[in-house]
């Protein structure tokens, strides 16, 4: 059996114990399988666990949240049904604190603040529309943001979503601030990036461990992509 080739500890694998597997997902990789039939992160993780622990059968991997295919960064997978059940509840109750970094082509005005919209997902076109007033079919969505500074000729924003809606950060930044994310042509940026990713990265995640109750913080290194190079000076 060949070892899956994307996994290296400290780079893709940020943490592992008996209940959790925390991955720094590369952009372009699905978290969970869809109609494309492309191999998702969940299957790669199961193969990794099967190889590492020489399991004769399929390894358990539970998906409790997702980030979009063109987005990079932290994804938590459950290795046990107990962890999966508790993580699902924590995500549902917004008890997991998430921080994203985003690159935009223009600065946000104001430079920091809170955005609240009602988001309506068009499942046929796979796009989300943001409404500033309450919408009968919309889900209330909230995030806070701040401009960290210039990163080359781009602007680096730190975004903390309070809720976790499909395409939430992408559509709220584009609609609420007029600052679409670099490469995100679906939400108004002028051109794609060469690797067809978008400059949105799930940078930091903090939660109480679902079994041990320990407070845990995970930080994901930025992708090895030229558009992120200037942002590395903001590492703390």
At a glance:
The chain is α+β, with helices and mostly antiparallel strands and 236 residues long. Helices cover 14% and strands 33% of the residues.
How does this model look, in words?
One of its GO terms (molecular function) is 23S rRNA pseudouridine(1911/1915/1917) synthase activity. Belongs to the pseudouridine synthase RluA family. Residues 19-174 form the Pseudouridine synthase RsuA/RluA-like domain. The chain is globular, with a radius of gyration of 18 Å. It has helices spanning 41-52, 81-92, 168-177; strands spanning 13-16, 20-25, 62-63, 72-78, 97-104, 112-122, 127-131, 139-151, 154-161, 200-208, 215-219. Helix content is 14%, strand content 33%. The chain is built from three helices and eleven strands. Strands 1, 2, 3, 4, 5, 6, 7, 8, 9, 10 and 11 form an eleven-stranded mixed β-sheet that branches. The chain is of the alpha+beta class. The mean pLDDT is 93. The longest helix has 12 residues, at 41-52. Strand 1 (13-16) and strand 2 form a beta hairpin.
Estimate what percentage of residues fall within beta strands.
25-35%
Straight-line distance between termini:
39 Å
Order of helices and strands: EEHEEHEEEEEHEE
The quaternary state of the protein chains shown equals single chain
In round numbers, the mean pLDDT is 93
The helix fraction, in percent, is: 10-25%
Question: What is the alpha-carbon Rg in Å?
Answer: 18 Å
Backbone structural class: alpha+beta
User: What can be said about the biggest beta sheet?
Assistant: 11 strands, mixed
Strand count: 11
| Tally of helical segments | 3
Low-confidence stretches: none
| Shape estimate | globular
């Amino acid at each position: 059996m060949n070892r899956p080739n994307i996994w290296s500890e400290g780079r893709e694998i940020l943490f592992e114990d008996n209940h959790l597997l925390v991955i720094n997902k590369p952009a372009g990789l699905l978290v969970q399988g869809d109609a494309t039939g492309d191999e998702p992160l969940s299957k790669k993780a199961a193969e990794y666990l099967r190889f590492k622990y020489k399991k004769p059968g399929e390894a358990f991997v539970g998906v409790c949240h997702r980030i979009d295919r063109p987005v990079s960064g932290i994804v938590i997978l459950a290795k046990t049904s107990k962890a999966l059940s508790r993580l699902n509840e924590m995500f549902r109750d917004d008890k997991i604190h998430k921080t994203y970094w985003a690159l935009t082509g223009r600065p946000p005005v104001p430079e920091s603040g809170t955005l609240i919209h009602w988001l309506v997902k068009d499942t046929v076109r796979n796009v989300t529309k943001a409404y500033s007033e309450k919408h009968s079919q919309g889900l209330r969505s909230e995030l806070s943001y701040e401009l960290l500074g210039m990163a080359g000729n781009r602007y680096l924003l730190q975004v903390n979503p309070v809720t976790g809606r499909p395409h939430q950060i992408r559509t709220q930044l584009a609609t609420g601030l007029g600052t679409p994310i670099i490469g995100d042509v679906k939400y108004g940026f002028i051109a794609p990036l060469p690797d067809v990713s978008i400059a949105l990265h799930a940078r930091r995640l903090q939660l109480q461990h679902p079994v041990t109750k320990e407070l845990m913080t995970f930080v994901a290194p930025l992708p090895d992509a030229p558009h992120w190079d200037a942002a590395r000076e903001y590492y703390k």
